[in-house]
Amino acid sequence: MMKVRFLLMVLFVALMGCDGEEVFDEAQQLAIDRKLIEDYLAENNIVAQEVGETGIMYVIHQAGSGPKAAFANSVFTHYRGYLLDGTEFDTSSGRGVFDFVIGAGQVIRGWELGFQELNKGASATLFIPSKYGYGSTRQGSIPPNSVLLFDVDVVDIR
Question: Any idea where the PPIase FKBP-type domain is (predicted)?
Fold first, then answer.
């Protein structure tokens, strides 16, 4: 009984020490990311479309042909990933075509949603809020809560 009381007291003290302001608010972060993307688009005179009401924005630089990518399709792409400040964090350059299956959880959710707006031969830029990227966790050189930009070329969809 003494151990239980002690554990309850430790738990109570630990919970009291939590600062409520440190709690991650996904909706608030999405609003921040939306604003960052909107500001970036305005500063660079870019007109983009939104994927549903997700906050994921995209610009098609070259239209493709055929049906858009859909759930369970394999997508083959070249890409370059970078942050709003232009810092590149990944690229397929020199590694060949990258492929993934939409809906299989192989890539970030922003790709699974964004690529469904594209078809074979399309060239586009995806603007992905952190919620649909890596969220509040650091991923290698990508800081937490980072908006991700991807220049993509859809080579094939099967």
Answer: 72-158
Q: What is the pLDDT of residues 73-91, one digit of tens each?
A: 999 999 999 999 999 999 9
Element (H, E) at 9: helix 2-16
Q: Summarize pLDDT for 40-55 with one digit per residue, the tens.
A: 999 999 999 999 999 9
Residue listed under structure tokens 């399709």? 73
Sequence-distant (6+) residues with CB within 8 A of 58 are 48, 49, 50, 51, 114, 117, 118, 124, 125, 126, 127
Which residues carry out catalysis?
79, 89-90, 108, 134, 150
Pick from 57, 62, 51: which is nearest to 33 by CA? 57
Residue 23 pLDDT class (50, 70, 90 cuts): low
Return the percent helix, strand and coil in the chain, to nearest 5.
Answer: 30, 30, 40
List of residues 6+ apart from 59 with CB closer than 8 A = 46, 47, 48, 49, 124, 125
Q: What number of residues does the chain have?
A: 158
**pTM, full prediction:** 0.85
